[in-house]
Write a structure and sequence with these properties.
The protein has about 200 residues and is α/β, with parallel strands linked by helices. It has two domains: about 130 residues, Rossmann fold; about 50 residues, no CATH class. Strand 3, helix 8 and strand 4 form a beta-alpha-beta unit. The radius of gyration is 17 Å and the shape is globular.
């Protein structure tokens, strides 16, 4: 069964990692999910912290929605109340909407860099998705279907034209801080000629 995976705002905040994950999703190896609140969070943070122009953020948001029209999940009030009621700190409450999205979607996985805080909330809820960092998530997908992940990586690499990347430079990009996918890069290095 194809896993359903909610992509947290902290993941969508990183353009290289996001583009990689969505290229992998195009192969059908997983179904990406998000909410309007998740989109609003990454867009606000990129505008504020990286000074990305609003029109560029809106364009990127529209492209993501067009590429995955079924990805948007709208948690109802009951999901939000349930997620919020399991939160004890402000940091946890800040992410309650992400957990509510995963609950509403019946997601298998929540892809996030904020595993610690969310794990505590899910323990209290006694239900919900597994939490994986982007690198852990891709490594699991690779174990399930390495051809799909390799194809997604090739789609991603060849879509990058400013500047273009040869396979070796591309793997270095994935392993570096812009993507934060060192394990993924290591796994894909064995398929460098296919990239």
């Amino acid at each position: 069964m194809t896993p359903l995976a909610v992509l947290d705002a902290c993941v969508l905040f990183r353009f290289v990692a996001t583009d990689f994950l969505l290229c992998v999703a195009r192969t059908g190896v997983y179904v990406p999910l998000w909410s309007d609140a998740i989109h609003a969070e990454w867009m606000t943070n990129l505008g504020r912290k990286r000074m990305v122009p609003e029109d560029r953020l809106a364009w990127r948001h529209a492209r993501m929605r067009a590429a995955f029209p079924e990805a948007t999940v709208s948690p109802d009030l009951a999901d939000l109340v349930e997620a919020t009621s399991a939160c004890l700190t402000d940091a946890e409450r800040k992410d309650a909407h992400v957990i509510a999205t995963a609950l509403a979607a019946g997601a298998d996985i929540l892809v996030t860099d904020n595993v610690r805080d969310m794990a505590a909330v899910l323990v209290r809820l006694r239900r919900g998705p597994r939490l994986l960092t982007p690198d852990q998530f891709v490594a699991e997908l690779y174990e399930t279907d390495r051809d799909a992940v390799t194809t997604g990586a090739r789609l991603h690499r060849t879509s990058m034209t400013r500047p273009p990347y040869d396979p070796a430079a591309y793997l270095a990009l994935l392993a570096g801080p812009r993507a934060g996918l060192p394990r993924t890069a290591s796994l894909l290095a064995t398929h460098q000629t296919a990239l």
